[in-house]
Structure to design on (252 residues):
């Protein structure tokens, strides 16, 4: 009897969650039409390594596609930590193709100043300078990147946030250019997949993207392009991580 009661409660919570997603999407459309995350914007996704776009940001990329955003991608390293840089650059382009990001809109910075190394601190001013150039050249309206926690705590991820934060706080971004950061969550929430949906709904401040089953398959296909990275624990990540299905983002 108790088990049946718990199942009923769980079903009610999930149903409530999905209804709230629908309602949130309607409210988000109104907000977008208000101009801050408008349809057909030029959005720049800023990542540190090849595979970040699929491992962490797939729901955002596919959600922006629904809104008819033109998505650009700027990757600040070739992911050469294990001397696989050339392979990983090719994998990134394959993944972007799956996610619908035009290859002409993808730039990979392969520069020794930005090594793929969690033990190295990237220079904030250097990152900010290159990032601002890319924003201005491409007429970017929205910048998407990691938050202060970097999702995984990787120092390269956090360096991107620091650079974007500096540009934003110093008023150097072009007029009308907004910044969205991907919300980091604790380890438990990170690996409970769609079960995190109610909490995501409660804690999302600005934008929430939730993938449908077809889009989840697309996200997994994009991640599978990164063959050099598909070790056993990353295969488990694909199955259990909320970031393959849900992205919560906040404006700076």
């Amino acid at each position: 009897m108790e088990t049946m009661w718990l199942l009923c409660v769980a079903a009610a919570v999930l149903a409530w969650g999905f209804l709230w997603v629908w309602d949130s999407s309607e409210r988000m459309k109104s907000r977008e039409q208000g101009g801050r995350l408008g349809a057909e914007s030029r959005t720049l996704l800023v990542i540190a390594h090849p595979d970040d776009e699929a491992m962490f940001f797939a729901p955002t990329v596919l959600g922006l596609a629904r809104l008819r955003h033109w998505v650009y991608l700027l990757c600040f390293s070739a992911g050469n930590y294990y001397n696989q840089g050339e392979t990983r650059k090719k994998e990134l382009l394959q993944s972007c193709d799956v996610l619908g990001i035009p290859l002409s809109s993808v730039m990979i910075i392969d520069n020794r100043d930005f090594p793929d190394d969690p033990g190295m601190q990237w220079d904030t001013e250097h990152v900010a300078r290159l990032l601002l150039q890319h924003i201005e050249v491409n007429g970017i309206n929205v910048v998407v990147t990691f938050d202060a926690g970097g999702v995984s705590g990787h120092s390269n991820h956090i360096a991107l946030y620091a650079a974007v934060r500096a540009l934003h706080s110093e008023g150097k971004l072009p007029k009308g250019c907004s910044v969205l950061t991907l919300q980091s969550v604790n380890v438990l929430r990170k690996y409970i997949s769609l079960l995190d949906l109610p909490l995501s709904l409660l804690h999302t401040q600005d934008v929430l993207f939730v993938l449908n089953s077809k889009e989840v398959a697309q996200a997994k296909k994009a991640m599978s392009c990164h063959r050099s990275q598909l070790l056993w624990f990353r295969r488990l990540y694909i199955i259990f991580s909320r970031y393959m299905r849900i992205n919560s983002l906040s404006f700076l």
The first strand starts at residue 42 and ends at 47. The two ends are 48 Å apart (CA to CA). Residues 55 and 244 are 6 Å apart (CA to CA).
